[in-house]
Amino acid sequence: MTAEPAGATRTERAVNGVLLPGFENRGRPAGDPDRDGGLVPDWLADAARAGLAGVVYFARNTPDVATTTALSSALHAISPDLVIAVDEEGGDVSRLEAVTGSSLPGAAALGAHPGGATVSLDAGRALGRLLAATGIDLLLGPVLDVVSEPDNPVIGVRAFGTTPDDVARHGIAFARGVRSAGVGVCGKHFPGHGATTVDSHVGLPVVDEPLDVVRARDLLPFARALRPEGRDAGQSTLDAVMTAHVLYPALGPAPASVEPSATRLLRELGHDGPIITDALDMGALRELTGSVGEAAVRAVEAGADLLCLGLDPALYTESFDALSQAVATGRLTLDRLEESRARTQALVRAVRDRRAAAGAATGLDVATEALADLTAFGAGIADAVVHVRRGSLVPLVPEAEPDVVDLRTRLDHAAGRKARHVQAAITAAWPRTRAFPADDVENGAGRRAENGAADTPPAELGQDQPGLAVLIARFTRYGVSADLNRIDTERGAEFPGAVQEASGSEPLVVITREPVPGSAERTRLEQLWAVRPDLVVVHTGLPGPVEEWFGTLSGGGPVVVVACGTGRANAAAVVERLRGPAGRQGGEEQHGSEQQ
């Protein structure tokens, strides 16, 4: 272990030992990728030398594997025992491939794969190799939430399934795979975020269920991962556990991340490693605690060991000051903070030993190779899982000029706005695509799809707003986007054409995630379906409710390409299904963890 810096006091080391901040890089490595190029900001370097427990990578830190590898090397050169953590779930949530979209389909795709949990094991191993190669120590995953609420705005396809058994089986296998590559894992979001209808990034979710229901449904995957049977009996498959900003009245009056009874329950289930909070600057805690600093103190009082913070260095400063003040006033003791620090140091030792046993190397060449392997592996997963349901798909001809309308209404804060990798893939295959994201549909203009996730907040597209009305008018009258100038000749009244003929060359593809009956997304879908019965849905949300959500539309509902997420691998497989005969078609074909 690293010697303590001479200039740091015991209090500074103890307080820093529970903090896990995000940060902004100072740039990208220049010239030699093995040099850090001044990537680490001064405040972070000073904190690392003064005992900082670790950092969390966000997408801004990891624009490519070269930057990620150089940054990790720079941080570990400053403090070899620093924990570098990242949310790299695959699928909809990717940090290392945020720009292009993930090479690995997410948990829902793995849970739906006909190969069962063995595929999740292999996926975890492939991802773990990339993480180890880029110098990352701890994966903030797997997601062990059970999606029992289809209208869940934040988990959805990030979960392995909708039953506790499926989530436990695949989650444990995935964790084993990651660990076998020499990387630590952190199960999340304890006690469970799958039954919520509120995103904790913006508000406080409440799951008002009896404790016996919570134990049987939400806690079971965590309990099995912490005390597995079989070859790992008596040995936890989790190195850490992340608590959720979710209020369970059956457990106590506060959200689990700041609720002592939730921490006690987690320890009773057998977890003796670090307890990590979800990011303390999320909306769920703002009204409750009033400040990130107070949230930090309350989390430690509740038994948390590592406190996740966002990118702004002010969050680190505020938390450090609040914890230091709590020590000065006797609200917290140094012994309590050092107890948490010791747990984190034990995790570091375990991960270092594991990495050595796995023979995992860190460097740009090995990271590039690991990414290529992950890409090939992920493409195979997506090809096996992405499929066509509800009828026979009419292939999009090579010269087609699709209209792509994004009907998703809610931001996905965990994934970074609303990922647009599906639009990007369709545009790459059919260059004359017109994409209508929500922020552009209002003026009816449409624009070519861009690569990557949208950076600007998408505006709401309500059924009474003019943008959707314009599109519906166009689709209704001509079966195509009548007023769009694609061929230097405006397609107007003089070119009415037949709907069937026009829609063959200008098909309508709509993207959905949560078309729950009664929702705004569902209403928009119904309006477009009424005027364009030839439309094709690309559904990026949960695969299980497809029949419930789309089969209840008038006339039996549209053809649906079930994407199981929005990652790059998923999007590429969607394009192959839209192209035709290679697609897995047939309304009777079923995929999903419930079939395994």
UniProtKB/TrEMBL annotation:
GO terms for MF: hydrolase activity
Family of the protein in this entry: Belongs to the glycosyl hydrolase 3 family.
Keywords assigned: Glycosidase, Hydrolase
Protein name per the record: Glycoside hydrolase family 3 N-terminal domain-containing protein
Annotated Glycoside hydrolase family 3 N-terminal domain residues: 50-345
Disordered as annotated region, ranges: 437-463
Gene3D superfamilies found in the cross-reference section: Glycoside hydrolase, family 3, N-terminal domain
InterPro entries listed in its UniProt record: GH, Glyco_hydro_3_N, Glyco_hydro_3_N_sf, NagZ_Beta-hexosaminidase
Top-rank taxon: Bacteria
